[in-house]
Amino acid sequence: MAININWGKCNPNNSWCGLLNLNLDHEVFSELKGVYIIWSGDKTVRIGSGIIQNRLKEHRENPEILAYNNLMVTWAQVNGNQMEGVEKYLADTLNPLVGERFPDRTPIEVNLPW
Predict the structure, then answer these.
(1) What are the helix (H) ranges across the chain?
(2) Is the N or the C terminus of the chain less surrounded, counting Cβ atoms within 10 Å?
């Protein structure tokens, strides 16, 4: 049975957020922990987990990720004891082009953002 998580979008029009212009200093990201997906077109570029603000700031400087155009991002709050399992499920399902896997984690199924 999948866990239902709420994927983040940008206001005011509730659309997907651009990775490079997202305001990561907004209060919504203060200490927010969970998972995220970065994509370009129909390709999943990177999936990860942790403190969302810190991880996305790091990815904005990663040349492997920046090699792709029109990078979009979404995120979801996930309990700390489930983060790596959710990340493993997303990685197995979406097959990101950049990043490592968590092969020793049991996947925890969640709803996809799209």
Answers:
(1) 52-59, 63-66, 83-94
(2) N
Q: Say what percent of the chain tops pLDDT 90.
A: 87
For 30-47, what is the mean pLDDT?
96
Half-sphere exposure in the Cβ direction for 8 (13 Å, CA): 26
Distances from the Cα of 87 to the Cαs of 14, 33, 70, 95, 108, in angstroms?
24, 12, 23, 11, 8
| Buried residues in 68-101 as b, exposed as e (16+ CB within 10 A) | beebbbbbbebeeebbbbbbbbbbeebebbbbee
pLDDT at residue 103 above 70? no
In the structure encoding, which two tokens stand for residue 36, read together? Answer: 């995220």
Contact between 100 and 47 under an 8 Å Cβ cutoff? The reply is: no
Domains of the chain with bracketed CATH? 1-114 (3.40.1440.10)
